[in-house]
Amino acid sequence: MRLVPESGDVGKRLDRYLHEKLPEHSRARLQGWIKAGRVLVDGVPARASTLLHAGSVVDATPVEPPPLRAQAENIPLTVLYEDNDVVAIDKPAGMVVHAGAGVHSGTVVNALLHRFASLSGVGGELRPGIVHRLDRYTSGVLLVAKNDAAHRALAAQFSQRSTEKLYLALVQGRLVRDTGRVERPIARDPVRRTRMTARLADGRAAWSEYHVLERFDRYTLLEVRIGTGRTHQIRVHLSSLGHPVAGDTLYGAAANRRARFFLHAHRIAFARPSDGERVTVTSPLPQDLNDWLTELRA
């Protein structure tokens, strides 16, 4: 494909320009094309940092990666609840839910395929059983569907917002109000594409409610209930209040020695697909976050 930069593109890095013009391709894939010499600027293989000039012509020869399939791996999993249709696991912080963005092993899906004989296929070969997701460094309850019927039933509950999702979050600063609600749409940040933002008028509707559990000198422990499940929702909403999740430097929190930010999916309640009975699954606060609170209380 041939791209001709416009006057407003002069001075832009090549990788940034390609990502703006070809948003259907990930940054990692575009970087791969550049490194493989498949992107030419004025007929010469270019680097990601190449700056575009007036009159430049960009030629790209795309290559699609081979289709991926998730592979089973013997990775320990903690099961919090299980029946014939649904499994609830306790996802540890640092574990990616499914392959993507250069991560193809060590995921929750890899572990699930080793542990369970059958999972739903509604989400495709890369996401068997996955009904919803948690961020890589968020720990806690994650629901998994064993079959397609259960997957559709759970997906309908998430869509209709009949599931209850409760998180524990430690935020920077002392919140004055004991309770509050944030109702702001969430969209991809147009400047920093790894972030989401609640500062734009457009975006997907989202709401989060919080209740203060404990206050410290420079932090506040919250219980957060969300009625929607947007990417980075709690992190974005709390940051928009001026109280980012502790340790979450992507959304403005101060850096610290911890390996993760303080956000834990503490409880989820749903209707069991087989008979509609309400099921509540709770994940205890992991040791590293308990230690963090112990230090603050001391």
Task: Give your account of this protein's structure.
The chain is globular and about 65 Å long. The chain folds into 3 domains: 59 residues, RNA-binding S4 domain (Structural Genomics Hypothetical 15.5 Kd Protein In mrcA-pckA Intergenic Region, Chain A); 93 residues, Pseudouridine synthase (2-Layer Sandwich), CATH 3.30.2350.10; 101 residues, 2-Layer Sandwich (Pseudouridine synthase), CATH 3.30.2350. β2 and β3 form a beta hairpin. Strands 5, 6, 7, 8, 9, 12, 13, 14 and 15 form a 9-stranded mixed sheet that branches. The chain contains 6 helices and 15 strands. The chain starts with a strand and ends with a helix. It is α+β, with helices and mostly antiparallel strands and 298 residues long.
Present the secondary structure layout:
Blueprint: E1 2-3, H1 14-21, H2 27-35, E2 39-41, E3 44-45, E4 58-60, E5 79-82, E6 86-91, H3 108-115, E7 139-145, H4 148-160, E8 164-172, E9 179-183, E10 187-188, E11 196-197, E12 207-215, E13 219-226, H5 233-240, E14 263-271, E15 278-282, H6 287-297
Parallel strand pairs: 7-14
Antiparallel strand pairs: 1-4, 2-3, 2-4, 5-6, 6-7, 8-13, 8-14, 9-12, 10-11, 12-13, 14-15
Keywords for this entry:
298 residues; alpha+beta; Structural Genomics Hypothetical 15.5 Kd Protein In mrcA-pckA Intergenic Region, Chain A; Pseudouridine synthase; 3 domains; 4-stranded antiparallel sheet; 6 helices; 15 strands; globular
Distance between the termini: 61 Å
Instruction: Give the fraction of residues assigned to helices.
Output: 10-25%
Rounded mean pLDDT is 93
Cα Rg: 22 Å
CATH topology-level name of the largest domain: Pseudouridine synthase
Q: What global shape is seen?
A: globular
CATH homologous group name of the largest domain: Pseudouridine synthase
Tell me which CATH architecture of the largest domain applies here: 2-Layer Sandwich
Q: How many helices?
A: 6
| Biggest sheet statistics | 9 strands, mixed
Q: How much of the sequence is in beta strands? A: 25-35%
